[in-house]
Structure formats: C-alpha cells, structure tokens
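dumping this here so i dont lose it again. seq + smiles for coenzyme A
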Amino acid sequence: MIRTLFKSDLNQLLEIEKLVHVTPWTEDTFKTCFNSGYVGWVIELDKKIIGFIIISLTADECHILNLCVVHEFQHQGWGWRLLENALIHAKQKGISIAYLEVRKSNTRAISLYRGMQFQLIGQRKNYYPTEAGNEDALIFALDLREA
Ligand SMILES: CC(C)(COP(=O)(O)OP(=O)(O)OC[C@H]1O[C@@H](n2cnc3c(N)ncnc32)[C@H](O)[C@@H]1OP(=O)(O)O)[C@@H](O)C(=O)NCCC(=O)NCCS
C-alpha cells in the first residue's frame, strides 16, 4: 500500500493539500521538491492516494517537509506508517538525525511525533500564518542512531 511518490501524482497531492492543510502547498512548491530530488511515498488504497510524506536528505540530515493523511483515514495509523517508512529509508542511507517543524496547535501531529520518540529541541516564534495572526513552530528532532 505504501509506494514511492511520482511526479504524476501531483494532481492528487494538490487535492489532498487543499483538504488537510491550513496553508496548502502550491503546484510550484511541489515542483521545486521534485526538481530538488526530494523523495516521498504515498499510501494508495483502491488506486486512490489517501496520504503522503515528502522528505529531503542531505549528507547527514533528514528533514520531514510534508506529511498528511486525508480526514476520513486519519487516526488509523497511516501517518505513523508513512513517517516510519521515511525514517527507515533515511536510516538505511546512514543518516543520523531527522528534523521537522510543526504548528504548536497541531496536537495530533505532535502526539504522533512524540510517540515516535522525537524530542522537542526548539521553537520559532510567530512562524506560521493563521487566520488570527501568527503561530509558533515547534522544532523536533530524532536521533536515528538510537531509533
Ligand atoms: C498529522 C497526521 C499526518 C497524522 O496522521 P494519522 O494517520 O491521523 O496518524 P496516526 O493514526 O498514524 O497516529 C495518530 C495517533 O496514533 C498514535 N499511533 C499511531 N500508530 C502508533 C503506533 N504504532 N504506536 C504507537 N502510537 C501510534 C500516534 O501517536 C497518534 O496519537 P493520538 O492520535 O492518539 O494522539 C494527520 O492528522 C494529518 O494529515 N493532519 C493534517 C496535516 C498535518 O497536520 N500534517 C503534519 C504537519 S507537521
């Protein structure tokens, strides 16, 4: 059910983005990811994508850039599986640390990251735009050598 994300998935990814994210990625953002060699995976059920993850890998770091699951399939372990799959890939590449940023109010995502032993390492004040103004970003890291 988990497969590599392809450029041809773009239209479905854009639809999911609009449904689940406060500030959805645009087509240009996805194209920048594809052109930068970032990697990703999707969960596909009955030929329909229900969630995806995109990461960037540098020599020693993995950055989780996007993770989402459509509403009707949330809370069923799909987010966990996507993240786990990405981290296993990074670890197999010899990468020692994974980073991600999340809105302070995003309790579901934070619960997932904490459950996977990510540690809070920092905070960016007023980093994300919201309808009411701005919101802090929490920065989490996971030491893949111990994971
Ligand atoms: C964040 C998001 C990706 C999580 O996906 P999901 O499929 O709903 O998450 P899961 O079902 O895998 O995990 C959710 C819960 O189960 C727990 N869980 C799942 N699998 C688990 C496992 N094998 N072992 C232990 N805990 C597990 C998680 O810790 C989490 O806890 P909680 O919901 O009880 O607080 C999803 O809610 C989403 O797409 N949200 C909108 C977009 C977004 O916010 N993305 C993240 C941006 S940083």
